[in-house]
Design a protein that fits this description.
Blueprint: E1 13-19, H1 21-24, E2 34-39, E3 45-50, E4 56-61, E5 71-76, E6 82-86, E7 99-103, H2 139-150, H3 168-174, H4 180-192, H5 211-222
Antiparallel strand pairs: 1-2, 2-3, 3-4, 5-6, 6-7
């Protein structure tokens, strides 16, 4: 691929700000004139260095160990700190993980970092009982769950409620893991996409997935009855 740094799977990269250290005076000199970009589907932020003529010099992870929850906007505030608007995992939903996140820079050894207090009476994120419905010991199911978390599935699906697409538990109710035709149908739908079963919104294709990986995803989904 031309840009291996961005990874693979679904994508929705967006342009963020250019950081000027002389104005903000918060981030290290290294980030002066760095262009920040972020991806709503893949949950990363990249710091991009441009050549004087505007061509790409290099692209590198910014806070690479942090998985942002569908970043949808990013700005440098008047205090010189970077703020990220995180949409959350579901479309048109009250996502408990949605937030405006402030990125603070600490030099030297990181010790105790103060945490923002929760608002009085703020609800806790609900525990989804369907999350515990799959068979913990099945290697294909575990591999499918891990694979799903690395893909763009969460942009359109939730575990136990409808989003753009059906909840996984509804798919598990409709199809049977014991029927080869059902399994083959879902494998084909994951790889080739399609529409009409759950409404008019088309499911995007995932042609880079192998049959084996699509079957692991199917095993996980059908375990969520």
């Amino acid at each position: 691929p031309e840009f291996p740094q961005v990874g693979s799977g679904g994508r929705n990269a967006m342009a963020g700000p250019v950081y000027y250290v002389k104005d903000a005076k918060v981030m290290p000199e290294y980030y002066d004139k760095k262009f920040f970009m972020y991806d709503w589907i893949r949950g990363w932020i990249k710091a991009v260095t441009l050549l004087p003529n505007g061509d790409l010099d290099k692209m590198e992870p910014f806070m690479g160990s942090t998985k942002f929850s569908a970043p949808i906007d990013m700005e440098v505030g008047p205090d010189g700190k970077i703020y990220v608007l995180e949409y959350g995992s579901g479309w048109f939903s009250k996502n408990p993980e949605a937030a405006v996140s402030r990125l603070d820079y600490f030099s030297g050894e990181l010790k105790d970092v103060p945490k923002a207090p929760s608002a009085p009476g703020a609800p806790k994120a609900p525990v989804d009982s369907a999350a515990f419905g799959h068979q913990q010991g099945d290697p294909d199911i575990l591999a499918g769950k891990e694979l799903m978390e690395s893909l763009d599935c969460k942009a359109c699906h939730k575990l136990a409620e409808k989003s753009i697409g059906p909840g996984y538990n509804e798919v598990a109710k409709k199809y049977s893991k014991d029927k080869k035709a059902d399994v083959d149908h879902l494998v084909n739908k994951i790889i080739n996409g399609g529409s009409g079963v759950w409404g008019e919104v088309a499911m995007p294709a995932h042609p880079s997935l192998t049959q084996e990986d699509a079957r692991k995803l199917t095993s996980y989904i059908l375990s969520l009855k």
